[in-house]
Each structure stands twice: as C-alpha cells, then as structure tokens.
Amino acid sequence: MLGRREFVRSALAGTGGLLFAKYSPFASATNASSDSRIEVLLGEPLGTISPNIYGHFAENLSGVIYDGVWVGENSKVPNINGIRKELVDEMRKIKAPVIRFPGGCFADSYDWRDGIGPSDKRPRRTNFWAGGEPANGLVSRKYDPNQFGTNEFVHFCRFVGSQPYLAANVRSLPAEQFDRWVEYCNSPAGSTTLADTRAAAGFTEPFDVRFWGVGNESWGCGGNFTPQEYAVEFRRYTAWVPGYGKELSFIASGPSDDGWDWTRGFFEEIVRKGTGQLRSIYGLALHYYSWNLSRGRTRDWDAGKGDALKFDSVDWYELLRQGDVLESLINGHWQVMGEVDREHHVKLVVDEWGPWYRPGSEMTPGDQIEQTPTLRDAIFSGMTLDIFNRHPEKVAMANCAQLINCLNSLYLAHEDKFCVTPVGHVFAMYTAHQGGQALRTDFSAPKVTYDRDGKPASFWGLNGSASLHDKTLVLTVVNPHVSEVRETEIGVRGGIIRAGTATTLTNSDIHAHNSFEQREVVAPRTKDLTIGSLPFTYAFPPASVTKLELRLA
Ligand code: AHR
To answer: pTM for this structure?
Structure first.
C-alpha cells in the first residue's frame, strides 16, 4: 500500500435600515420559513486576518511555471518581460499577497545559482518531477531550462504586487548556499559580488525577500529526516544568516495532516538549545491535502483518489468532510506547539492545501498533477478560507496548492488559452476579508445527512466567517447542500445595517467548471440586497458560496 509519504518516489518511478442592536436571532425565530441562523458578534473580535492567508504556491512542476507563469519574452502570448500578462492582470484583481516558489519537493533539488545570470548561459537540469512526467508530456518539462529563476520570480511578484516566499534547499545544498541566496537577494547595491551579479541582471536594489522556507516536507522528499534531525538542521541553516538590516522570517518544514509527532519532536529538539531558539522561527508549515474518496475502503495514495469531474453527491460531501478536518488540525498542532512554545511566538503557515484527485481531468493533456476544478472545489476553497479567517491568531500565512495548471488551481492556461477556474473566483470574492478584524460568528442550520455506502453520515449545514473593515461587514457563507436552499435569519449584534450587496457563486450542476472554450460557466453574480423588514432573512442557494458586504451605519 502506498501512502502520501511515498507517493513522490512512486511518481518519479513512473439593506435598508435594519437595526439588530439587541436582537439575538437565537432567542426565537420570528420568520417561520427560515430554518437556519447566523449571528455576527461585532463586539467579539478574534484578531486581524493576515492578507497572507490568501497566498499562493507555484512550483517548478510540469506546466505550472513553464506555460503557466512563464511564456518567454519572444512568445506570441501577451506577456510582460516573459510573464503571462493575463495571469498578472487576474492576480492583481485578487490582491495576491504572497507567492511561494520554487517548491514543494522541487525546492530540495534546486540550485538557485542555475537560475541567475544571462539566460542563454543557464544550464539545463533534470527536473525533480521528470520521472513522473506522462508519456505525452513535453520533453522540456523533464529538462529544466532555468529561464525562470530568482530574478524572474521576483519580477513576477512585483508585477502582481506580491511578496516573494522562497523555499530553500536543505536536502541537497549546504547551509552556505542558503546564506548566499539570501546575500544575492538582499545584500545592498554595490556591497557584495552577488549584489553586483544581481545588478548586472538589471536589479541594482536588493529584492528584500522576507519569507524563507527552510526545506520542504523534510520528513519525506525534503530529506527523510526525523523531526529531531531536522530541528538540528533548521538551527544550523538559520543560525547567523546575515539579515542586511531587513527582517528575515524563517518557516520550518512542518507536519502533514495529523503528524503530531513531527510537530512535538521538532519543537522539543529546537529548544534543547534554549527557548530563545523559538525566536528564530516565524512559522511552522502545515500541509494538508484532501484526497481519499474511497469512503473508508483504502488508505492507498493512488487507489483512494477520486475523480475531479465525475462524482456523485456522496463524493461531494466526502471531499468537503475531509477538507473540514483542517480546522481540527490547526487547533491540534497549535496545542502541541503550545506545549513548548507557551507564548505562541511561532505561527502556523499552511503552505500547501487543497483537494487532490487522480489524473485524467487535466485541460492540457500531458500536464502532470493538473486537474480541472469544479464548483465542488470552489465550495471547498471557500470553506477552507473561512477556516483560516476563524483562526487569525494561529494562521499567519496559507498558500493554495497550486496557482496555475496544477491541483486546486485558480487559473488554467496553455499557450494563448487561459481561464479563471471556480477556485479563482472564490479567491476574488474573499479578497474583501484581507486585513479585516475577524469576528466571532455563530451558525446554526440543519445538518446535511447522506448515505455513506449503507451507513448514515452527516456534515454541517451552513458555515462561514465574518470580518469588519471600518464600516463594512464582510460575511462569507457556504451552503454545502447539493439541493436545498437555506433560508437564514442573519443578526448582527451591536450594529445597524443600512445597505449591502450579495455576491454568489453557484450553478445548477455541481460538476460545473470553466474551460478555455467556455470561460464563464461558473462565475460570481452580484446583486443589491433588498431587505424589507425585520428580521433580515437571506436564502443561500444550494451548493453555493456567498459573500454579503453589509454597510454599518
Ligand atoms: O504540490 C505538489 C507536491 O505535494 C509538493 O511538491 C509537495 O510538497 C507535496 O507533497
């Protein structure tokens, strides 16, 4: 049986005027037709929602960078200095805050020196993912041309308005090269030979890269370390890295799923040199993929996967149920971290998340690990972003895996073809939460019940998150039921609502998705709210993500 830990090895082998000030909708329902309630508590802030939880991940894997992000300066595809223009335009709209690169597993095979200097002098290397490229994949996917390196990545981030998050190689490069990469990126103009090399490429001023991943999945493709061994490496790689007057935020390779032992082992070993060591860690990376749609029949990484496009309503709920587990993982790892890091200096960085299906739905045949996101993945993504919003004190950053032409992609592209997926639309809707004050919000709705191969199963009926931005209250709500509308009373304790809008992403077909030919099958629709009388009742359509933007008086 193949687990997730081994999969890489295997792949390579082969309103108007509503006052809710004292009204609590939970006391008694005044609208007989509503079966659900939401109450937003303006007086109970949870913390500021870091924009960085709306972050992205772009690995040098198959069609992600080459074709997805990078088309080259001489391409007929509209581009800005070689970077796909349509991608840049779309990412600006969603205020993409941070992008993680170059991996993933690729990171621990990458020598950053291959990706700097004149592009015609850069070496071609075997890509980490070469062994997994399908027979119909492009040869250039196997042999990395290194045309997109540090300079191009930072350029891309600047065009989009994102911060770069570089993942350093701990498995196959010495710690010295970590120092040098930081020096190349951050040493002041004219100060070092590497600063001169950077200037020769057109970048006189330092890149000022703040976020640095120290390895990736170090329990597996990042070196097969034990948590104790990795903690020793982490201390060594991060000790005395020159900062060049800028803050460096190191992100430690963390657990996958419920790997409590990894979290505990890493923290216990780190503080063997004193609790002061905790100050050197900005975040602990948590990876969580939802992939097992076998309904309990297997835990095999390949056999357990479901199809991205062909699924029934049970598969729909099963995927959402798995995704919902992420909240308990955040709480659980936070608790384990707190056994050592009592003041919770170290935050969680969920730098890989999303559903993972079996191959077969890729829009560009030959793209490894590409899948076509449907409405199901949009609902999943809304639910996940709501989870992050509800834990602002714990989650400092999150990066959806992956940006384009991969797993839970916001965009799909091939040559001059491009489309925004339903997941991309959810990110656009949720942009409104960035930087807001998260608010405690209570949801109550009838549970979804379904038959899980002869056994009863259930899932919550309505959930979401709320944030306050001066006089605007943003409330996002997921109705996971495939066929039932949720008539819902919405109360805002401590505020008066004057007007608002509702933006909804849904479709009558739960399999609906966008394609290069039909780009707008799943797209959000916005309408003004017409709120007549107390209480405020809103009908959340089946299989939907909704954003209510309510203006407070
Ligand atoms: O996102 C694809 C791969 O999944 C990443 O390279 C790795 O970190 C994870 O196992």
So the answer is: 0.94
